[in-house]
Amino acid sequence: xxxxxxxxxxxxxxxxxxxxxxxxxxxxxxxxxxxxxxxxxxxxxxxxxxxxxxxxxxxxxxxxxxxxxxxxxxxxxxxxxxxxxxxxxxxxxxxxxxxxxxxxxxxxxxxxxxxxxxxxxxxxxxxxxxxxxxxxxxxxxxxxxxxxxxxxxx
Length: 154
Known about the structure:
Elements lengths: L5 H23 L20 E7 L5 E10 L7 H10 L7 H10 L9 E7 L6 E6 L4 E5 L7 E5 L1
Antiparallel strand pairs: 1-2, 2-6, 3-4, 4-5
């Protein structure tokens, strides 16, 4: 059997006190995350409007986004909106990208209505996500007709 001495108890108590102090300091001091944002030169093609940067969950750059075109009238089903964008050589925005368009490209979007996003509704295959021009996202039947928006990712 190992003999326990008073000195050994004091030494262990001191060790535990230091460990407790370091743990409390770690909890009290929030960890910061450093993100480097390099300077960028963005070249837009004629008629494009810069929407901004789309980030990954960790805050790093995923891609940049430009608004390329908006259909002149609300005459596109979900599939039709994909064709509109594809015929121009681009694609529809995701729900997150649609919010970025509303935040940064509002002057270049119609004043009212809604447009399709590229995201299908996960709970019902007959539905897809849309973004109305008042800032809400919602889902509706893919057969309904709305505006079509084309974006370029780079």
